[in-house]
Specification:
Helix content: 10-25%
CATH topology of the largest domain: TIM Barrel
Number of strands: 22
Largest sheet: 8 strands, mixed
Strand content: 25-35%
Distance between the termini: 16 Å
CATH superfamily of the largest domain: Metal-dependent hydrolases
Length: about 400
């Protein structure tokens, strides 16, 4: 397969009118089109990008639902629908995200297990990101209060089994009593620890300096903040050069001034753009009416999804391609860096060393995207076409 006729996005530069050659699920060659098209294999399929962007497929590593699909009512069919909607936005890999409700975890784990053989989803749904239950009550945000618990290694193991061992990332508050033992247990189970929904003071975080891999969940949201006298988790994360920080750029979760601060202070190689999308994402406001989250009615307003009763912000109506577009158009982030925040960086954080970039030898996870990132005309995952809008 040869994808040509567009600008190829590499982690450090753009190749104008480039091409990507794929063979046996891997990227074989990348470069200027006139160089790549020499000696094409017999029977090679040629795809014209029509002057769009040829990008690594995007990653959604913090998503609670979209297109009306909810983690609370998850099934193999619903997961497949979610994967199809995301593919149409250029998203290859995604990490279903939920709270530590045992019934929900069991349903998501079962759906992931059942969908493993589905051609459209094979290798794309990466596991579960669980927010909680070991979080600070004062920073729980949209997490139902009845699901918040003190750290317990025993209960952690119970959740892992309930999810059919599908937990990939777990968010916890590092200042809670017993959090250090919990961190060790999370890591020993092969789960990526992520700090968040936390009221930690700066000094509480000294023990986490230099630890890798380690993440920070939705920077600025649900955490102690920035202060010249009483700095918290957000300030620690801004100053830390090795931790991977999620950043929501939908314009509602994080003020643009805070996004600018993070972009200027942190290395772009350690930032991951996320959506924190909820079921109304991808739907018109009218279609989103009547939806519930964790049993509570929600309303969609602008980019946000809110509990109807309390007005608490619980998630976003935007998807990762929308946040990526704002990074480029609103914050003037160079295109290769912005795309890496939604591709290479999450792949690296999750331990996939041959994904997330259009480089020879890497998996052929490729998206052909419009220049404003609003449309995807073609998506492949490991060389296998999973979405096309081409005639």
């Amino acid at each position: 397969m040869l994808i040509e006729g567009g600008d190829v996005i590499l982690p450090d530069r753009l190749i104008r009118q480039g091409a990507v050659l794929v063979s046996h699920g891997k990227i074989r060659a990348v470069g200027r089109a006139e160089r790549v098209v020499v000696d094409l294999p017999e029977g090679c399929r040629r795809i014209n990008a029509n002057d769009w962007l040829i990008s690594p497929s995007l990653w959604e590593v913090h998503i609670h639902g979209c297109g009306g699909v909810s983690m609370e009512r998850m099934s193999a069919e619903a997961l497949t629908r979610m994967g199809e909607l995301l593919a149409a936005r250029g998203v290859g890999a995604f990490l279903p995200t939920t709270v530590a409700d045992e019934a929900i975890l069991a349903g998501v784990g079962s759906a992931l297990e059942s969908a493993e053989s589905a051609r459209e989803l094979r290798g794309r749904a990466l596991g579960v990101h669980v927010e909680g239950p070991f979080v600070a009550p004062v920073r729980k945000g949209g997490i139902p209060g009845e699901l918040v618990r003190e750290p317990s290694v025993e209960y952690l193991h119970s959740l892992v089994e309930t999810s059919r061992r599908r937990i990939r990332v777990m968010t916890f508050a590092p200042e809670l009593p017993g959090a250090s033992q919990l961190f060790d247990a999370i890591s020993s189970l092969g789960i990526l620890p992520s700090l968040g929904h936390s009221d930690a003071r700066f000094d509480d975080l000294e023990a986490y300096e230099g630890i890798t891999p380690l993440g920070v969940t939705h920077l600025f949201n649900g955490m102690s903040g920035i202060s010249h006298k009483d700095p918290g988790l957000a300030q620690w994360a801004i100053l830390n050069k090795t931790v991977f920080t999620e950043l929501n750029c939908d314009g509602t979760h994080v003020h643009d001034a805070a996004v600018q601060l993070a972009l200027r202070a942190r290395p772009w190689q350690r930032m991951i753009v996320i959506s924190d999308a909820f079921p109304p994402a991808g739907l018109e406001e009218e279609a989103a009416r009547g939806l519930t989250v964790y049993g509570k009615p929600v309303v969609a307003n602008g980019a946000g999804v809110y509990y109807a009763g309390s007005g608490v912000l619980v998630g976003s109506r935007r998807l990762v391609n929308d946040g990526l577009a704002r990074l480029v158009s609103r914050f003037d982030v160079p295109l290769p860096w912005a795309v890496a925040m939604a591709t290479l960086n999450p792949a690296r954080h999750l331990g996939f060393l041959e994904k997330g970039a259009l480089l020879p030898g890497y998996d052929a996870d490729i998206a052909v995207l419009s220049r404003d990132f609003s449309e995807c005309s073609f998506l492949s995952w490991e060389g296998r076409p999973v979405w096309t809008a081409l005639s």
